[in-house]
Amino acid sequence: MPDHRSATVASEDTSARRVLVMSTLAFTVMFAVWLMFGILGIPIREEFGLSDVELSWLSAVAVLNGSLWRLPAGMITDRIGGRKVFAAMLAFTAVPAYLVSRAESYGLLLVLAFLVGFAGNSFSAGISWNSAWTARGRQGFALGVFGAGNVGASVTKFIGPALITGTAGATYFGVVEGGWRIVPVIYAVLLLVLAVLVLVVTPAEDRMPGRGRPLREQVQPLRQLRVWRFSLYYVAVFGAYVALAAWLPKYYVDNFDVSLGTAALLTATFIFPASLLRPVGGWFSDRWGARRAMYWTFGVMMATTLFLSMPGGHIVLQTRSGAKEILPYEIGLWPFAIVVFVLGCAMGVGKAAVFKHIPEYFPKDVGAVGGLVGMLGGLGGFFLPPLFAYSQRWTGLPSSTFFVLFLLTAGCSLWMHWTVVHMLHTSSPELATALEAPGSMPDTSPATPATPADSRQIPQEARA
């Protein structure tokens, strides 16, 4: 019997690893497809003679559609399994991705950009799929590894310019043009290959925690305030990440007078830690608790964004002998890039910590809750860039971009801290210094059997 049980556990671990590997690879490519217009937009603008506003809408509509369907995508994954959902998403996205290479008008490009954006909804499907296969004690790390697929935002930045330059003017197989048009064709092929691999490599008998459950029961947790609080956290750590990934190249070019290629590389120093440190954030949350990880995340984000929001200049004092300029201040390129790198590190940890909360508190509703949190976080990436532009117009200060993020982060931090303090002082005053589940405190409640779904199994901080 022990041998049989060990073999079963080993088989489940192998299946969970296959799901994690394939979902992460697929999500990385779909994330690259989702944000590919950040680089392709430059040669597209030249070919079609677009204004900056028209160009901005190509990326904006892709980000919008990649956020709108995250809630239903997560719920459907819970009901029918991530294997089917991922394969369908990959195959569906391949069609508009290929058609982008054949577009001959701005209107058609806008429609195709919107359809290509559907790839962004794979995030909530992957969160639900991996949660169903991963043991509770390793969910933070597993979801962090999956979420590291955000690094796909840098893929086009690295391969795009070389492909565009190296293939310009060429034609392949008689139908595929070189230049910027070859990039979406390559992505379309990769998406179809991954769709086949998902069906071949991952377990045929998938896990479906929401199968057979009424829709009304699935959406019931969305009425809880904490779900919307987690969503605001995710706007700060993910929505701001998406917004900055698109905004920083322009910021570097306009304020530090560097080339677009240099700006793209400097932006990558923000994207990589903000993506690849998600597993570290998940491991930290598994070991020391998601709440503690969020405190550190928001603390670092507030410090860095406040520093970055300080405008260059000096103070002018009117004295008897005339005006005097004192305390000249200016952030140079490399100090700026280093602080932005630190900001990316904090966001990478924070993204994992937010999603560590969800399977911990809503083990049966990861699809619905994770879908809503992911949807609102993604919409933050849609709304923040215009807010950056308006704040710059109103103040005349480019650094106001980071003051917007400081205010957002400060609001999240204050709401989180007020919730924790309120919970500890009203429900458990003896735990006033605890941030995580009070596992070391004596249990004075009567011994009562509990099922995994019983609220007594949920950590104390979940009730905040």
Short summary of the structure?
The protein has 464 residues and is mostly helical. It has helices at residues 2-34, 37-48, 52-68, 70-80, 82-100, 106-116, 122-133, 139-147, 152-167, 182-201, 215-219, 225-256, 260-276, 278-288, 290-308, 333-361, 366-395, 400-427, and strands spanning 171-172, 176-177, 313-319, 322-329. It has 18 helices and four strands.
Q: Characteristics of this structure?
A:
two-stranded antiparallel ribbon, disordered C terminus, nitrate assimilation, nitrate transmembrane transporter activity, single chain, globular, 464 residues, 18 helices, mainly alpha, 4 strands, Growth Hormone, Chain: A
Structural write-up:
The protein has 464 residues and is mainly alpha-helical. The chain has one domain: MFS general substrate transporter like domains (Growth Hormone, Chain: A), CATH 1.20.1250.20. The protein has 18 helices and four strands. The chain has helices spanning 2-34, 37-48, 52-68, 70-80, 82-100, 106-116, 122-133, 139-147, 152-167, 182-201, 215-219, 225-256, 260-276, 278-288, 290-308, 333-361, 366-395, 400-427, and strands spanning 171-172, 176-177, 313-319, 322-329. The strands form two sheets. Strands 1-2 form a two-stranded antiparallel ribbon. It has a two-stranded antiparallel ribbon with strand order 3-4. A hairpin with a 2-residue loop joins strand 3 and strand 4. Helix 7 (122-133) packs antiparallel against helix 8 and helix 8 (139-147) packs across helix 16. The protein is globular. The two termini are 42 Å apart.
